[in-house]
Task: structure prediction
Amino acid sequence: MSLPALGWDDDWAAQVDVGAGRARSAVARVSRADATSARLLTPDGEASVAAHGLVVGDWVVLDGTSRPRPLARRTLLSRQSSGRDSTEQPLAANVDVVAVVEPMWPEPNVRRIERMLTLAWASGGQPLVILSKADLFTSGVRSAVAEVESAAPGVDVLAVSATCGDGLAGMRHRLGPGRTFVLLGPSGAGKSSLVNALAGEEVLATGDVRGDGRGRHTTTHRELVLLEGVGLLIDTPGIRSVGMTADDDGLARVFEDVVVHAADCRYTDCGHAVEPGCSVRAAVDAGALPAARVESYLRLQREIEHQSRRKRTRERSQERRDTTGRNQAKAMAMRAKGR
Ligand SMILES: Nc1nc2c(ncn2[C@@H]2O[C@H](COP(=O)(O)OP(=O)(O)OP(=O)(O)O)[C@@H](O)[C@H]2O)c(=O)[nH]1
Ligand SMILES: [Zn+2]
Result:
């Protein structure tokens, strides 16, 4: 494998202070990462290193002495993990395309697609929707795609089948050597099957879907896979909950059609619920906006606001701790001097 096949280019090279000839032995791409170690892809093969704070997809500099240092990320896909002490969890770094994978069968969950697309836009990468298992649809593929398209302004929607190969050309066309996709979607959506289908061989394990159509969480870790001549794919374990992060950049992109009406509301802080002069409600009443889409927008907005408040609180208490720590250090230094 070569560095360009791993996604290396002149802009990355400009970030590191090594001669062009030396880059080959001095940089590597993270293919797997956990709390204490990482696996790296280098032109000379794979390597495992002790590391922390790395994210799959990162580029790192290796100087042989200290721990691998990540280069500034171009894009970063994150989600809010679930649970009481929920934190922002980075999922993949330096991806060109965030492919939101949603099974067509029994039917695509449009609300979940909107959620995943909000994170996709916020990552800085280009979102794409993959409707998987298109072979299970004998008719109506076109109208299912059209329905999802209307919930994903500015995003291409592809109907794809890993089993019979339909639509894979559309993915190949958007990939290409050195380009990186991350596949984001629920368990059982067929993410690992897509990687295998693009590879033309079994590179990842896949799992059966339970009777209710849900997956069994076959993929257990995030992994970057290099497919020679095709591109780079990051497979992620199916996520049960797609929590919104504090970043609201993505929301306005996904809900462009809602936001355009919101600009005409009488009150600038309109909640689009019961306020007089609400243009969003008026558009719903006139049939110009689906009510479910507006509900979805408001729900995601509330989640993002909640996370933003939590983030601010955390930052403030961290600041207080820092100030206290600094004051204590100062007081100790004064006492030491006084002695
Ligand atoms: N009919 C049909 N079945 C598919 C297709 N793609 C995947 N499947 C089946 O769906 C099941 C789940 O596929 P996986 O590729 O393991 O799904 P995943 O999204 O990687 O799941 P996790 O690893 O749990 O996140 C397997 O039984 C596959 O055989 C497809 O295009 N058509
Ligand atoms: Zn309003």
Summary: The chain has ten helices and 13 strands.
